[in-house]
């Protein structure tokens, strides 16, 4: 009974906090450009001033997060993202003039860009600051109020976010809700004007179902298994280096990390050798290396270990990469592994890996690799390594993914002027740049008509005049 009462109290508290934001929006429905710019600039300045504190919070949450990774993936990405919003805001806020058919003259048509209202943001734990701050800042750029639910898996970062917003922005602009899964379930059931969720596909389905009764539009940034196609002409050394970088960043705990590599059959052994060498260059030591991030908690590490044990039990060849020959200690840093002999019934083939485990699948050619990709749920990202423009164009046109990189991994996801989002099982909707601004904006059509106009020609009683007019307008 106590647990039920606690959940009910949390629901009531969330509802009242939501209504407070709704009231703030009702009092001031469309902040002008100067006010929005003020919010963004204040957040950017606070981020830069408090970045050391943020780095320490994320390091503590992970039990070992590389400081330079945090500064690059969290601080730099967010600071540059806000810079892009500040630069783009004058153009993004401008109205759009639209054309009308001549027989409606002297009417004019245009589109007004208005804030939607109160936006809900549910953020994940893997990049707990970036994936909280970017959608919140974009919603603020569009003039909205925001309620943010950070992940309970990274509580220190959640507390940092709550403190940052409370000190930097006026009351009634952003409210940070801390708490566990019960709070999250109540959060996504609120009648937001738009809801953004970043997380797993399975949770995304539940979020969409919770939002449906209130007809809340949702943006789902989900995960999935982002494959890499290595074409026969590709440089294996270059491909292995960039795949190793993408796979090992944040210890593979990235939604667009390379998940599975499709390699020509005759080149599998050479690619494995190149990949092992690339990992060794990036991380000469792994278990005792502050540049290498730990798995976020024991539960997620156990999940990854169960994937490896399942693959071994079902006949796969699992090879550990350990350049310095280290012995496992108390750390949650996990030695990377390569898996050969992968079959569809293995856990590593069915679930998003989200760790430093790399399945390698031999394929006959690029066409076979494309068939493999197209037979599975549409991924959040797809990567192709090839120097042949015809091969790249074939893969680009012949597959569907949320985004794509050619001869690179992951970098598309941090480019402000490229829309970021999934398709199908990997998500819906997108943000970044003007695309993100429009996600949080209602584009309202407005038609202005003069008192004297020709619309009377279309009014009853109908007769020969109307017949001639329609014959003129609908001619062969």
Fold and architecture overview:
By secondary structure, the chain is of the alpha/beta class. The protein has 2 domains: 2-222, Aldehyde Dehydrogenase, Chain A, domain 1; 227-421, Aldehyde Dehydrogenase, Chain A, domain 2. It contains 16 helices and 16 strands. The strands form 3 sheets. Strands 10-11-12-9-8-13-14 form a 7-stranded mixed β-sheet, sandwiched between helices. The chain is globular, with a radius of gyration of 26 Å. The termini are far apart.
Summary keywords:
alpha/beta, 7-stranded mixed beta sheet, 2 domains, about 45% helix, Aldehyde Dehydrogenase, Chain A, domain 1, about 475 residues, single chain, about 15% strand, Aldehyde Dehydrogenase, Chain A, domain 2
How would you summarize what this structure contains?
With 476 residues, this protein is an alpha/beta fold.
């Amino acid at each position: 009974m106590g647990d039920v009462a606690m959940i009910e109290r949390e629901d009531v508290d969330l509802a009242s906090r939501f209504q407070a934001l709704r009231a703030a929006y009702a009092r001031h429905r469309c902040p002008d450009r100067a006010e929005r710019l003020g919010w963004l600039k204040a957040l950017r300045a606070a981020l830069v001033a408090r970045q050391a504190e943020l780095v320490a919070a994320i390091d503590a949450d992970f039990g070992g997060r590389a400081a330079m990774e945090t500064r690059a993936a969290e601080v730099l990405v967010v600071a540059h993202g806000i810079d892009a919003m500040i630069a783009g805001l004058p153009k993004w806020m401008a109205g759009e003039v639209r054309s009308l058919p001549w027989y409606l003259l002297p009417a004019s048509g245009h589109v007004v860009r208005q804030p939607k209202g109160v936006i809900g943001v549910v953020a994940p734990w893997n990049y707990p600051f970036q994936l909280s701050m970017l959608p919140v800042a974009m919603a603020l750029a569009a003039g909205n109020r925001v309620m943010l639910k950070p992940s309970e898996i990274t509580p220190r970062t959640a507390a940092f976010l709550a403190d940052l917003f409370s000190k930097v922005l006026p009351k009634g602009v952003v409210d940070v809700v801390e708490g566990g899964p019960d709070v999250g379930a109540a959060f996504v059931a609120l009648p937001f004007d738009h809801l953004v969720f970043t997380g797993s596909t399975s949770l995304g389905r539940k979020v969409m179902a919770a939002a449906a009764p209130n007809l809340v539009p949702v943006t789902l940034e989900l995960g999935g298994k982002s494959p890499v196609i290595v074409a026969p002409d590709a440089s294996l050394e270059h491909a292995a280096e960039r795949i190793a970088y993408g796979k090992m960043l944040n210890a593979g705990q990235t939604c667009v990390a390379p998940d599975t590599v499709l390699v020509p059959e005759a080149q599998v052994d050479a690619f494995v050798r190149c990949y092992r060498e690339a990992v060794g260059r990036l991380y000469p030591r792994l278990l005792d290396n502050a540049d290498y991030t730990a798995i976020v908690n024991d539960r997620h590490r156990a999940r990854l270990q169960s994937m490896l044990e399942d693959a071994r039990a079902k006949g796969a060849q699992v090879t550990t990469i350990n350049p310095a020959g280290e012995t496992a200690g108390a750390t949650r840093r996990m030695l990377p592994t390569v898996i050969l002999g992968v079959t569809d019934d293995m856990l590593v083939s069915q679930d998003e890996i989200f760790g430093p485990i790399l399945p390698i699948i031999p394929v006959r050619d690029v066409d076979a690799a494309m068939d493999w990709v197209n037979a599975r749920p549409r991924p959040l990202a797809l990567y192709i390594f090839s120097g042949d423009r015809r091969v790249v164009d074939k893969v680009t046109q012949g597959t569907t993914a949320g985004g794509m990189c050619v001869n690179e991994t992951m970098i598309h996801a941090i480019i402000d002027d490229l829309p970021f989002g999934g398709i199908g099982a990997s998500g819906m909707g997108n943000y970044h740049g003007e695309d993100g601004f429009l996600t949080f904006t209602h584009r309202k059509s407005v038609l202005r008509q003069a008192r004297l106009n020709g619309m009377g020609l279309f009014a009853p009683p109908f007769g020969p005049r109307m017949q001639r007019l329609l014959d003129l307008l609908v001619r062969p």
